[in-house]
Each structure stands twice: as C-alpha cells, then as structure tokens.
C-alpha cells in the first residue's frame, strides 16, 4: 500500500479496532459455538513494530497474525513488490499464520533489510499491516584499554557478551576478537591548560543503531566524579566550567554502550595537565553550549523535551530555568545534570514557547533563550470502528486524527486505494469519513484509513460486515440468580443478531415489563431491579426479536431475607477468674445455611478449652488479663454476612457498686407484622431500664425513597406497651426505629426495622399556593407548590395545568407537566386575567377536583439556554467552560451576555461535606468560552449557564459536573511534642484541615539546637499517611530538638509546621556512682585485691633471687631449640619465654622466603586476567589476552588477596 510518509522513523500508535454501529456498537460474541458459521472479514491481531531493529546474531521473526471466518490466507510485499517466499529457502511462514521466520545462519542480515507489509485476505475482504521497516543493529565491539602498572606493554581486550536467562542461571559468553577497533584510531595529545580556564573533552563515539549511551570512567571502571563544575553533556562530551589542579590526570576515558547488542566501545585515554603559572582570573559566565543568546528546539507531541545549557565562568556559575510568559508544566518537568538540563515529559502543544536558562556567579550573569516548537505526528482522536450491518442498513466509518502539520487522510478498500476501486453508489467519501447507505449482501470489505504528515503515519483497518443473522441469546438457559432483599438484582440477557434485536422482558408470563421503577432495561439487554424485594422473586423471560426471528430465554430470581444480628454482644466487664458470656442472636433466611464464627482482635480465638462456642453465644471460663480485647461475632451465608463486636475488660474484685440511674438502652428486635396496604403493626423488645422505669416510646420513620437519612417523629406509645399500629401513606419506603424515655432521658435510637414499601395509589390532594403572574409582555407563568414524596402517592407524578382567559367565552386549555412547580403560557395578551387550576395525577389516577384561582400575564424573557455546555479542569484551581451561543431568535431581546452559576458540591476526600453557595461569572455576548479561577483542589463542582438580556435571565442549561484534580495539602492542623524522656520524644499531630487530595505520606525532619540557637545536622523520616503519633528514639539527653512536619499528596509537599522539644537529664547516674564508691563491701573488696597483688609480687621476687633450674628449664635443656635464647646474665631476661614474634614480619606483610617483596594484590594487575604469567601487550597499549577470569592466588596468601573488579559488572553498574 502506498504511504504518504516516507521518513526513517515509523513510530506510531497501535490501531485499536472496535466493533461498532451507527449509534450502537454491535459486538461479535467470543463464544466459539456462536461464531461457528458466522462470516467475518480479516482482522490483524498481531504485527511487528513499524521500526523493527533486529539482532544480526539471531533469526529474523516478522509477526503477522489475523483472524477471520474463513481463516485468512497471508502474503507479503517487500519494498513495495511481491515477496515470493518459495524462491528463498531461508524464509518460511508459520502454519495457519502470516509470521515470517528468516534463517540468517550463513547469511548476512543486511540482505533482508527493507520495508515489509503483510496482507491477510479471505472471501470477505483484505486487511493489511503497517509498513514494517527491518534494520539490523550494527555490531559494535567493546574495547577496553587497560594499562599494566609496569606500563611495559598494552593490549586490547575485546568481548561481546550475550545474556541467556533461565530460572537460576545467567550465562555470559565472551569472545575475543582481533582487528581494528571500531572507534576511529587516533593519537590524542595531552591537553595542557591553565588553572581556571574552561575545557571540553570530546567523546565523538562511532554511530550505532540505536545510538549509544555515553559515560566517562577510569581504566578501573570507576565513574569519574561529576559536579556543578564538571559534567557530561547530552552529546557525551565532558565539560569543565573551570579547571582546577585536581583535574590533572591521565585516564579520562569515554565509553559508549550500544544497548541493543549489549556491547561497549572505549575511546583512547585522554591526559589533562593543569598549570598554575598563569592562572585565569574570575570572570562572569558565558555559555559553552548552546552558543549565542538564542536557539531553537523542535520536539514531537508526547515525547520528552531535553533542553541543555552549560556555561563557563569563575567561580562556577549556578544554573536556573524559567519559561517566559508562563510557568513550567506542573508535575512534568525536572532538572538534571546539576540544573544544567531541563527535562519535560509527555510534551503537549501548550509547552511551546521561550525557555530561558540563566547562569549566575559573583561576577555577573548570562542568559540564553531556547524557542521550543512542538510538532505532532498523527495521533488518534477516534480510530475507525468495525461495522456489522444488516442488508439495506446504513453506517459511517470515521477516521479522526490529530497532528501538526494537519495529517493527510487517504482511504483504501481491501488494500486498494479507494479512487482505484469500481464506483459504488452506496459509498461516499468525505475527507475523514466514509458514508455507507443501503448496503447489500455480499458487500463486506475491509477499509484502510491512512493518516500521515512529515513526522509519521497511522494505518487502521476497519471491516464492514454485512450480515443477516437471526437473534441468539447467549445467556445460559434457566440460570438462577439469588440476591439479598434491598440489593440490586441484575438479570442478564446477552444477545447477538443482525439487525440488532429488540429485547423485551416478561415476568411469570405476564405482560412485558416497562422501563420504569423498579425496573431498568439496559442497552445490553440486562434487566436491573434497583432494590429487589421478595415479591420480585419468580421466573423472568427475555425475548430477542428482529425481522428474521425471535429467541427467548428463561431465568429465575430468588430474593432472600438479609442476615441480621438481633441481639449483639455487649461490653463486658468481669472479674479475674470469673466467667464472661457474649450473646449473639441472629436471624437469617431459612433457605440459606448460616455459619457462625468468632474473632478476638480480628484474629482467630486461642486454641483453648476455656473458650466454648455455642449456637448463639461465646463463653470464656476462668478469665485472665490476657483475654481482654474486642470479640466479634460473624454470621456468614452464601450471599451475605453480618457482624457485631464488644469489648471484654478484666478487673480485680470490687465491692458492689451503688445503684446508678441511667437512660435506658435502645429497644431491639423490631418486627413488622399485619402488613397491609396503608398500615402495619410494629413490635419491639425494650432495652435495659437502668433502674428507672420507661415512661414512653417514640416511634420515628425514614422514607428512603423521597428523603433518605431524615428521621421524622411519627407517634408515641406508653412505656407499658411494645406494639403499635401505624397508619401509612402510599408509595413510601418506610424504615422505623424506636427510642425509649425514662426519668434520665431518651435512649439511643434502636436499629432500623426491615424496610416496608407501601403500594402506590392516586393522589389524595392537589398542589397548594397556585398563582399566576407574568414576567414577559406575552406570557403567563402558572406556579404552585409541588407535592412532596409523601404526598405523591405513586410514581409518575404529573400536574394537569389548565387555564382560560377570564370573562372570555372559551374552553379550558390543559397541559400535563412533571418535575416542575410552574408552567408558562405563551402568546398571551399583556396583563390579562386568567382562570387557573392545577390538578395532581400519577400512574394510578388523578387527584380531587382542584380550586380555580385568578392570575395575570406579564412580560418576556429569553426562552432558551446555551447548548453543548462543556467543562474541563485545567489544573487543581482552574477550569475552562465552553458552550454554543443561543440563537438570537430565542434571546427575545438585546443579548447582554452569559451568566455562569457554579458551586462546590463537596470535597472528594470528605464525603459528608456540604455544598457551598453558588458563585456567578458574567461573560460578554461574543464569548463562547471562559475560565473559572479560584477553585478548591480535589472537589466536585456543579454548574449551569444562562443567557440574559435587558429584561433578565433565561432558563438554565443542563447541569454539568466536574472534578478538580488533587493539589498540595495544607499544613498539619496541630503538632505538639509530648512524653519527653532521656533519649526520646513523642510527636502527635492531626491531618491538615485542607488535605486537597489523598495524603500519600508525611515528611518529618528534625535537628538538635544548641544553647546559641545553632542548628545541628538534619535527620529525615518518611511516614505513612495514616500515622499521627511517632516516638523519635536514640536522642541525646538534655538536648533541645527542632521538628519540621509536612504532609504530601501526589502533587507534592505542603507547608511545614514546626515544634521544639527537650529531652530530660538523667540525674540518677552520678548519685548511683557515688553510692557504690562509698559502700563498705566495695572498699573491702578493693583492699583484698591489693593485698593479693602484694603477696604475688613478694613470691615472684623470692623465686627470681633463688635461681636454679626449673622443670621447664630442664625440658628446654633436653630439647634445644634454636629459636629459644638462654637467659642473659647481664640483663636478667627470661630466655625460655622469649617472644620470637619480634623477629617475624608484621602481620599482613607478604615477604617470601627468598627475601623479595611480592606485589600487593590491590594493584589489580591485568596479568591476572591473561592466559600466562606475563600479559602480552601490543604497541598501542591494548590487552589482547583472552578474558579468562582471575587466576588462583598462592596458598600462602590465604584470604588476604583482593579481587580485581570485573569489567562486566563495572559496565552494567552504569547502565
């Protein structure tokens, strides 16, 4: 296929093909049984990347996989021509696949470089792959120049290493090749410079595919130190802003690592000599790179932008960056190479502009402006989707792409440019859109969209499959669904057919279920019941129908009663060695099997016979302090669970406490009986009275359908009764709770009862406060107070609004409206009297006859709201709104502008936060977009928009909601130091009031403060976001410390709060020492030791003066040892115990018996890596011996030899 773009880079987005229809996507099912016999054009499922760099040491594999029915056949082109695989025995194609395998053994990989394209075809169409550009990685050899310490010879050690990974092995293959190195051979003269001048050491590595990674090291593979003065540029050169005496060295070596082939090459060492006979003076900065004051950089959208500025100067300049007319992109920029490199990731068009780098020292500053231009290769806004159409249907293929410059779009059909295909009256091409109308059987095909500009191209295949298929229901028949009452129930009806079947649901052979409460029919055929009740149990039938046939499927729904703990375990305080009992009475659906379990502190109970679990209780005998904790009762069924916890406290035996009067415990075991249309009987069990009789019970209800979490007083019951008959309203989701009252006060509310839903009925009353007034010259506004949920009596609440002009002979005009409290009558005379009435109705009938009131018409206002209101959060405090202007005919007056009402609904972190008051922004009449500043980070906002003229505002647009992203948090709300000790301080804090997102961590830093307020070294601790207490240990006693605490989100760290604390002094230590020294036993012990030493000295003196031979002396005389010297009469030394170590070499020295000094192993001589004792060196100083590993050392050296560093490990450590 012809490609518009012919550049070397073929990077592009992968094509995502989606199944689609004009308005509804028709998915091809994955069920193999359904796919049997279902025709489908080819779809490419796997292909090699556009730019495919191959390893010349391995066979070439070019992937091309496709699916279709029937299975497609494959063919290839190479460099635009047919690639005949039969003519090349080295090329094979995998069975049932288009993947090529090229055997390059004995061949040069260069012979197979080129542009390849795969074609997959069957009788329904042809799909093509991207152009796959095959290029081989250039073979670069690693060359190390290693100098021996004698510097007698040099050799070149060359190796290419392969990594073969298995479960437990890493095998390296080393090859030693001779010949000319790939780095251009050159004689590098020593670089002689004066102290303080700038210097550039050039690397200039050989070209490679992909380009090499550069780093500077010495001959022993140690990275050369870099800092703000000496650093490596992006091109690999080593820059010195000013040279110093310590820069003098002879081993500046540049290494180039080629990542694709895992090979490395080395440049000849460079010698730098710094002289100080004419040093350079201090000077202001000037830029070494880039040159001049301005330069231009171009980057592609989505790539990483790297800008570099390196300056010379003395003292060493400091670098800084800023963007003119804007800020650096938040969260996407970073500084590298000691602030000399600015990196911006995921570049967008907004990153275009001028970037200024500034070099500054004490002598002045210099600026350089880099103008960044952002271009874009084609990228998908909306890739074309597959279409499945029935005969005579219509569809659209769209190919929405972006790019800079704007991409050129071309279309092909089955791999042939569309302009070269036969004319098709059912097909029309309009730039990026192909319109298909009245398609016919047999017109299936695969369409290709090609979007290209100078930076790349995109290719997408999308098939049009014309099918006439009767409906198929894919959900298994007679499937059983079980749910717990008041939970959603989802009944599946997965289907397939062409045209798309219509889905209808039936229950128990009744009429079809409408898409109304409580049922919701989803577009995928699923039937949802929002809050399933036992009455919804039964058999459901889904029917899929199109003009070819109908297919039905049956499923069953069982709604179970929830598992509920009626009597929870209670807080238990028991005396040690007594018995503790926790009760846990549970109610569950009788058809479900319950499993009761107990936990202690969220872990299993101890394996101890003292713990006895019964059906509704846990008993602990002979309680000890170790039994204290939280005990949790858990009741599990196959569908749900319920749990409750209580704390056990163990105390010593205490006297009987006095009588305490408290408010009663809440009632329990609420039950609903005698359930009727508009009444129910509620019963309950009273709680503990706590020594004060219950006077009365207060019954409250909650209507979760109309006003959730709002409890309303319903009736009061005498304290002697536990049953009440309640009158109910229609169409209310009732939950009841009971409070008990005694002389102390009300109890806490009981747990809510099971929800009871009353059936709908027609309204019992009409809206009140009906009135009519005018707000325009030609209309009448009829308003009323809407019925609330309790008054609606049923779903589908509407209002029949009737009016006629007073004193005029005409019939009543009636309109029905819903979800509103007013109705506007248009085209009325100005300020005319009207008779008005409003009647309520719902799906079950109408309310009573309404009263007639008189109102008057009035003035005019705009009748329409802005369309297509869209909002987008630009950052955590700024959003942008766009809208379509209101047509002038709907403004009905002079257009003054647009008012935007927006408000903060809640914080995304605090679910219970309240909406804030709406704010208003006004935009001019010609504006179609605007910005909302000053927003709160990490919040949910709502907005609507209105047009206004000289008379006032028009109706609001549809409400839109948007979320602001996370921001930087505020400082912790509180921070204090507590519990000082000798070597620790405890810190306590609370989270920030404005978290502005999800906290990710706390950063704690601290340092000592001396008596002159000087600060010591800083320590830092990273804490998890849920920590609020920390004890800092290992501190110095009697020392003041200053603590700094800040919170962080993903956006960064917030402001810091500080606090100081002081550790205490250990005053007991001196006193303890003094006490020991003054103890009598201690004085006596010291005297005894002194006396013993004196006796030993006297005995020793007597023995010495006595002389003569001793047993040891006799043995020595019998066995003369040349090492032992006789006792000298003149100096009185003891020859028999002479220390011969004084005449031995020092420990660790390596003096052999011949008296020569062996060289220390730490010299890392490269002879150890050769095949013989002496390494062979050629004239250029390169080591040519095979790399064979370190030789074994002489056994006399033991473990004191040091191993020379491995060049492989050294190289890998810098990648």
TrEMBL record:
Q: Which BP terms in the Gene Ontology apply to this protein?
A: axon guidance; brain development
Ranges of residues in domain Ig-like: 42-129, 181-271, 285-373, 378-465, 471-558, 562-649
Please indicate which superkingdom the organism of origin belongs to.
Answer: Eukaryota
Q: Where is the composition biased (Basic and acidic residues)?
A: 1111-1131
Gene3D superfamilies, per this entry? Immunoglobulins
Localization recorded for this chain is:
Cell membrane
CDD domains, alphabetized: FN3, Ig
Q: Where are the transmembrane segments?
A: 160-183, 1081-1102
Carries keyword Cytoplasm?
no
Q: What is its main location?
A: membrane
Protein family? Belongs to the immunoglobulin superfamily. L1/neurofascin/NgCAM family.
Q: Which UniProt keywords apply?
A: Cell adhesion, Cell membrane, Disulfide bond, Glycoprotein, Immunoglobulin domain, Membrane, Repeat, Signal, Transmembrane, Transmembrane helix
Residue ranges of every copy of the Fibronectin type-III domain listed in the record: 666-761, 763-860, 865-967, 971-1067
Compositional bias annotation for Polar residues: 1198-1215
* Native species: Denticeps clupeoides (denticle herring)
Q: Topology in the membrane?
A: Single-pass type I membrane protein
Tell me the first and last residues of the signal peptide. 1-25
Q: What is this protein called?
A: Neuronal cell adhesion molecule a
Single GO MF annotation: cell-cell adhesion mediator activity
Q: Name a GO CC annotation attached to this entry.
A: axon
| Matches recorded under Pfam families | Bravo_FIGEY, fn3, I-set, Ig_3
Q: Where is this region: Disordered?
A: 752-772, 953-972, 1111-1215
């Amino acid at each position: 296929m012809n490609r518009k773009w012919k550049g070397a880079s073929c990077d592009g987005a992968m094509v995502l093909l989606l199944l689609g229809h004009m308005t509804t996507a028709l998915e091809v099912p994955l069920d193999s049984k359904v796919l049997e016999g279902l025709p489908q054009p080819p779809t490419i499922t796997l292909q090699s990347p556009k730019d495919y760099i191959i390893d010349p040491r391995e066979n070439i594999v070019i992937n091309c996989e496709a699916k279709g029915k029937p299975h497609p056949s494959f063919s290839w082109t190479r460099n635009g021509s047919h690639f005949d695989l039969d003519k090349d025995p080295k090329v094979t194609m995998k069975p049932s696949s288009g993947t090529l395998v090229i055997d390059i053994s004995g061949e040069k990989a260069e012979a197979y470089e080129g542009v390849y394209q795969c074609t997959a075809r069957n009788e329904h169409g042809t799909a093509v792959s991207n152009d796959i550009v095959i290029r081989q990685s250039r073979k670069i050899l690693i060359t190390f120049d290693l100098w021996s310490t004698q510097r007698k010879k040099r050799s070149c050690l060359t190796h290419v290493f392969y990594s073969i990974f298995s479960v437990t092995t890493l095998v390296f293959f080393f090859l030693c090749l001779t010949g000319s190195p790939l780095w251009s051979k050159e004689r590098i003269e020593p670089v002689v410079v004066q102290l303080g001048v700038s210097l550039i050491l050039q690397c200039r590595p050989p070209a490679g595919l992909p380009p090499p990674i550069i780093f500077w090291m010495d001959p022993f593979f140690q990275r050369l130190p870099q800092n703000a003065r000496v650093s490596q540029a992006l091109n690999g050169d080593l820059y010195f802003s000013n040279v110093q005496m310590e820069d003098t060295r002879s081993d500046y070596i540049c290494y180039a690592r080629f990542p694709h082939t895992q090979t490395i090459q080395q440049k000849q060492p460079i010698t730098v000599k710094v002289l100080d006979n004419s040093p350079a003076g201090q000077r202001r900065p000037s830029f070494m790179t880039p040159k001049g004051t301005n330069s231009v950089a171009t980057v592609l959208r989505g790539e990483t932008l790297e800008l570099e500025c390196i300056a010379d100067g003395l003292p060493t300049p400091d670098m800084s960056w800023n963007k003119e007319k804007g800020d650096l992109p938040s969260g996407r920029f970073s500084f590298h190479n000691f602030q000399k490199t600015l990196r911006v990731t995921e570049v967008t068009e907004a990153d275009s502009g001028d970037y200024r780098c500034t070099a500054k020292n004490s002598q002045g500053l210099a600026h350089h402006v880099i103008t960044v231009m952002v271009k874009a290769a084609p990228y998908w806004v909306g890739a074309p989707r597959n279409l499945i159409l029935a005969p005579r249907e219509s569809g659209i293929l769209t190919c929405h792409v972006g790019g800079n410059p704007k991409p050129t779009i071309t279309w092909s059909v089955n791999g042939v440019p569309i302009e070269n295909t036969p004319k098709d009256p059912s097909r029309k091409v309009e730039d990026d859109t192909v319109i298909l109308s009245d398609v016919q059987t047999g017109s299936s095909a695969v369409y290709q969209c090609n979007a290209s500009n100078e930076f790349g191209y995109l290719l997408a295949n999308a098939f049009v499959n014309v099918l006439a298929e009767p409906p198929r229901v894919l959900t298994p028949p007679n499937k059983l669904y079980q749910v717990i009452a008041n939970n959603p129930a989802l009944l599946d009806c997965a289907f397939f057919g062409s045209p798309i079947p219509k889905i209808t649901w039936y229950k128990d052979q009744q009429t079809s279920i409408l898409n109304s409460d409580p049922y919701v029919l989803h577009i995928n055929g699923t039937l949802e019941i929002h809050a399933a009740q036992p009455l919804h149990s039964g058999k459901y039938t889904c029917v899929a129908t199109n003009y070819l046939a109908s297919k039905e499927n049956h499923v069953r729904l069982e709604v179970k009663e929830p598992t509920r703990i009626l009597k929870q375990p209670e807080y238990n305080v028991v005396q040690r060695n007594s018995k503790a009992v926790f009760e846990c009475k549970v109610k569950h659906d009788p058809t479900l099997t319950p499993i009761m379990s107990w936990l202690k502190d969220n872990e299993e109970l101890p394996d101890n016979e003292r713990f006895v679990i019964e059906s509704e209780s846990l008993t602990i005998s002979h309680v000890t302090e170790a039994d204290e904790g939280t005990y949790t009762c858990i009741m599990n069924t196959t569908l749900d669970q319920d749990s409750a916890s209580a704390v056990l406290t163990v105390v010593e035996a205490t006297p009987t406490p006095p009588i305490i009067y408290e408010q009663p415990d809440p009632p329990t075991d609420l039950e609903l009986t005698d359930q009727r249309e508009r009444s129910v009987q509620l019963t309950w069990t009273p709680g503990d009275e706590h020594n004060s009789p219950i006077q009365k019970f207060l019954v409250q209800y909650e209507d979760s359908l109309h006003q959730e979490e709002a409890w309303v007083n319903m009736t009061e019951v005498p304290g002697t009764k536990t049953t009440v008959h309640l009158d109910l309203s229609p169409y209310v989701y009732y939950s009841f709770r009971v409070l008990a009252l005694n002389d102390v006060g009300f109890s806490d509310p009981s747990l809510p009862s099971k929800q009871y839903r009353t059936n709908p009925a027609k309204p019992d009353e009409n809206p009140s406060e009906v009135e009519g007034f005018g707000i325009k010259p030609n209309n009448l506004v009829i308003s009323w107070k809407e019925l609330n949920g309790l008054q609606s009596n049923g779903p589908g609440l509407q209002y029949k609004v009737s009016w006629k002009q007073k004193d005029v002979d005409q019939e009543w005009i009636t309109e029905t409206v819903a979800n509103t409290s007013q109705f506007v009558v248009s085209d009325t005379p100005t300020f005319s009297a009207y008779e008005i009435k409003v009647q309520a109705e719902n799906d079950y009938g109408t309310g009573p006859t309404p009263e007639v009131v008189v109102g008057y018409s009035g003035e005019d206002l705009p009748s329409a709201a802005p369309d297509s209101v869209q909002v987008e959060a630009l950052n955590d405090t700024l959003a942008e709104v766009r809208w379509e202007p209101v047509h002038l005919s709907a403004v009905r007056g002079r257009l003054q502008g647009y008012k935007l009402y927006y408000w903060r609904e809640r914080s995304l972190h605090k679910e219970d936060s309240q909406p804030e008051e709406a704010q208003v922004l006004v935009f001019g009449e010609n504006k179609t977009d605007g910005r909302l500043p000053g927003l709160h980070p990490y919040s949910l906002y709502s907005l609507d928009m209105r047009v206004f003229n000289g008379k006032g505002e028009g109706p609001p647009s549809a409400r839109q909601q948007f979320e602001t992203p996370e921001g930087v948090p505020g400082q912790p709300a509180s921070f204090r130091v507590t519990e000082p000790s000798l070597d620790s301080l405890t810190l306590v804090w609370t989270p920030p009031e404005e978290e502005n997102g999800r906290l990710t961590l706390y950063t704690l830093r601290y340092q000592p403060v001396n008596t002159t307020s000087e600060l010591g070294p800083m320590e830092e601790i990273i804490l998890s976001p849920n920590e609020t207490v920390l004890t800092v240990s290992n501190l110095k006693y009697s020392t003041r410390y200053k603590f700094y605490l800040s919170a962080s989100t993903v956006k960064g760290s917030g402001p810091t709060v500080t606090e100081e604390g002081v550790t205490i002094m250990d005053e007991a230590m001196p006193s303890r020492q003094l006490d020991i020294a003054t103890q009598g036993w201690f004085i006596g012990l010291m005297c005894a030791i002194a006396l013993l030493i004196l006796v030993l000295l006297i005995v020793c003196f007597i023995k010495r003066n006595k002389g003569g031979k001793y047993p040891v002396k006799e043995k020595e005389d019998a066995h003369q040892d040349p090492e032992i010297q006789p006792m000298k009469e003149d100096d009185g030394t003891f020859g028999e115990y002479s220390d011969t170590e004084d005449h031995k070499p020092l420990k660790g020295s390596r003096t052999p018996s011949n008296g020569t000094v062996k060289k220390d192993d730490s010299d890392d001589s490269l002879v150890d890596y050769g095949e013989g004792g002496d390494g062979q060196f050629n004239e250029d100083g390169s080591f040519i011996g095979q790399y064979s590993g370190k030789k074994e050392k002489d056994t006399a050296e033991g473990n004191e030899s040091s191993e020379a560093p491995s060049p492989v490990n050294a190289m890998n450590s810098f990648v």
